[in-house]
């Protein structure tokens, strides 16, 4: 007996019809981003892979972009959501420029904006499936922060997303120090990226390192890391192993 | 194909412990500075303490994004209050506001476990303790967060107030001096860091008294 069939209003986010309008899981994803503060600003590294589940579908994805004059954004997670975020930030920077008042949004402000965007999407149960790293320098003040897809954010001297938290942060905790030179910073990032390459299934050996200083943002040409696979322990891994056949 | 369920949770627990102790003319609010998720430490230097008004400080542990949003909300409401009343909100007033704010999201809660500490209108220390949906109580001391199960019994042992059921109504504030209370808080966190994996790195202590607000730090175990 159905006296008053409870009907959802057309624009409601509840009910089965609405699920096609909400992010349930990611499709094309990027893996870790690693970043650290160094003497002149921020260094950030990310590989160029876009995975479609277990397939390596795209091998030329730039997962780091300059935002305005002072910031650099790196993203892991759903690539299409990253592109959407870039469109939001385009508008943000455009309106900031159109004031033409000599002021410009610094990395702290952009990070705060992104945090609010991510948190609000999470509140509506329709998240942007990304972990973002926002770094920059303005008026000599270096800033490096991160936001997750549910809005958890913080800033630190070095940050990473995804697997980077497990594999790169311990290395950075051990070896990072204030006022790293550019060369030392790059070496440290490469050390982290190499470990990720060996141990993260979705990492590929084609990465870029981006740097942001007071002068601006530069991003390296894609390049690959040297790897070594001839460790004797791996040459004949089952030799000497106890087995039943 | 059966209907797909979302495989993400809008909540996360970023861990940490908070404590507040009220004295005759001071209030000590403390929290560790570790932020974690699962078995990972995200950062060792994150403040869980937020000054809401001149004589009113809140420490919150739980889901950091909700905590941040809650702090922003309260700060905004306090600003409006100041514009409308030409004065700062008292601690008891902020306490009620926090409770109402939390209950407002009763059906999609702020996953935030708060202790509010400060001085009331007479300059006496007061501590309010909350659950995630706004149920609150004025107490002499409290702890919330991942280490609270370890900390609270110890505080009960050291600071036990007379039963609130007794008549005449007895005060819950501790007779301890400010320095002794700060020392107790340091001891409590050092102990909690031994056994609670989510508590550690650094302790941030805020002391409010007639002279104003003072901040102090102490290193804790980093493991």
UniProtKB/TrEMBL annotation, chain A:
The keyword Transcription regulation does not apply. It is found in: Cytoplasm; Nucleus. It comes from the Eukaryota. Keywords: Cytoplasm, Nucleus, Proteasome. Gene3D superfamilies: Glutamine Phosphoribosylpyrophosphate, subunit 1, domain 1 (3.60.20.10). CDD domains: proteasome_beta_type_4 (cd03760). Belongs to the peptidase T1B family. Non-catalytic component of the proteasome. Component of the 20S core complex of the 26S proteasome. The 26S proteasome is composed of a core protease (CP), known as the 20S proteasome, capped at one or both ends by the 19S regulatory particle (RP/PA700). The 20S proteasome core is composed of 28 subunits that are arranged in four stacked rings, resulting in a barrel-shaped structure. The two end rings are each formed by seven alpha subunits, and the two central rings are each formed by seven beta subunits. The catalytic chamber with the active sites is on the inside of the barrel. This is Proteasome subunit beta. It comes from Hibiscus sabdariffa (roselle).
TrEMBL record, chain B:
PROSITE patterns: PROTEASOME_BETA_1, PROTEASOME_BETA_2. The keyword Nucleus applies. Signal peptide: none annotated. CDD domains: proteasome_beta_type_1. Keywords: Cytoplasm, Nucleus, Proteasome. InterPro entries: Ntn_hydrolases_N (IPR029055), Proteasome_bsu_CS (IPR016050), Proteasome_sua/b (IPR001353), Proteasome_suB-type (IPR023333). Its main location: cytoplasm. SUPFAM superfamilies: N-terminal nucleophile aminohydrolases (Ntn hydrolases). Gene3D superfamilies: Glutamine Phosphoribosylpyrophosphate, subunit 1, domain 1. It is found in: Cytoplasm; Nucleus. Component of the proteasome complex. Component of the 20S core complex of the 26S proteasome. The 26S proteasome is composed of a core protease (CP), known as the 20S proteasome, capped at one or both ends by the 19S regulatory particle (RP/PA700). The 20S proteasome core is composed of 28 subunits that are arranged in four stacked rings, resulting in a barrel-shaped structure. The two end rings are each formed by seven alpha subunits, and the two central rings are each formed by seven beta subunits. The catalytic chamber with the active sites is on the inside of the barrel. Belongs to the peptidase T1B family. Component of the proteasome, a multicatalytic proteinase complex which is characterized by its ability to cleave peptides with Arg, Phe, Tyr, Leu, and Glu adjacent to the leaving group at neutral or slightly basic pH. The proteasome has an ATP-dependent proteolytic activity. This is Proteasome subunit beta. It comes from Hibiscus sabdariffa (roselle).
């Amino acid at each position: 007996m159905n006296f008053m069939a409870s009907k959802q209003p057309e624009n409601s986010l509840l009910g089965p019809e609405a699920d096609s309008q909400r992010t349930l899981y990611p499709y094309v994803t990027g893996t870790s981003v690693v970043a650290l503060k160094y003497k002149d600003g921020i260094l950030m590294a990310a590989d160029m892979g876009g995975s479609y589940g277990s397939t390596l579908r795209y091998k030329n994805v730039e997962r780091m972009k300059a935002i305005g004059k002072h910031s650099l954004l790196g993203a892991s997670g759903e690539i299409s959501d990253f592109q959407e975020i870039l469109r939001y930030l385009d508008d943000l920077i455009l309106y900031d420029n159109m004031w033409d008042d000599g002021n410009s949004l610094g990395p702290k402000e952009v990070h705060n904006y992104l945090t609010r965007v991510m948190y609000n999407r999470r509140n509506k149960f329709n998240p942007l499936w990304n972990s973002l790293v926002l770094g920059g320098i303005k008026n000599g003040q270096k800033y490096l922060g991160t936001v997750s897809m549910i809005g958890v954010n913080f800033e630190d001297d070095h940050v990473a997303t995804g697997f980077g938290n497990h594999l790169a942060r311990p290395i950075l905790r051990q070896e990072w120090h204030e006022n790293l030179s550019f060369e030392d910073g790059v070496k440290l990032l490469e050390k982290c990226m190499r470990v990720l390459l060996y141990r993260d299934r979705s990492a590929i050996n084609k990465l870029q390192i981006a740097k942001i200083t007071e002068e601006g943002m530069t991003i390296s040409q894609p390049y690959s890391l040297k790897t070594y696979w001839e460790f004797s322990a791996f040459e004949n891994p089952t030799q000497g192993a106890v087995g039943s056949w | 194909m059966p209907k797909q369920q979302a495989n993400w949770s809008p909540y996360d627990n970023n861990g940490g412990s908070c404590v507040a102790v009220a004295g005759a003319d001071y209030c000590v609010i403390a929290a560790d500075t570790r932020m974690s998720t699962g078995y990972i430490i995200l950062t060792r230097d994150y403040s869980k303490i937020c000054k809401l008004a001149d004589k009113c400080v809140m420490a919150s542990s739980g889901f950091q994004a909700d905590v941040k949003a809650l702090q922003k909300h309260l700060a905004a409401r306090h600003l409006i209050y100041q514009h409308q009343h030409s004065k700062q909100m008292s601690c008891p007033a902020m306490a009620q506001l926090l409770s109402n704010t939390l209950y407002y999201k009763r059906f999609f809660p702020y996953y935030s476990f708060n202790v509010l500490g400060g001085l009331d209108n007479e300059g006496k220390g007061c501590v309010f303790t909350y659950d995630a949906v706004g149920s609150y109580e004025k107490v002499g001391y409290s702890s919330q967060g991942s280490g609270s199960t370890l900390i609270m019994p110890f505080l009960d042992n050291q600071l036990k107030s007379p039963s609130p059921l007794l008549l005449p109504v007895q005060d819950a504030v501790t007779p301890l001096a400010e320095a002794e209370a700060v020392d107790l808080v340091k001891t409590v966190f050092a102990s909690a860091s031994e056994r609670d994996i989510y508590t550690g790195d650094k302790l941030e202590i805020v002391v409010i008294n007639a002279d104003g607000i003072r901040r102090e730090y102490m290193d804790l175990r980093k493991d």
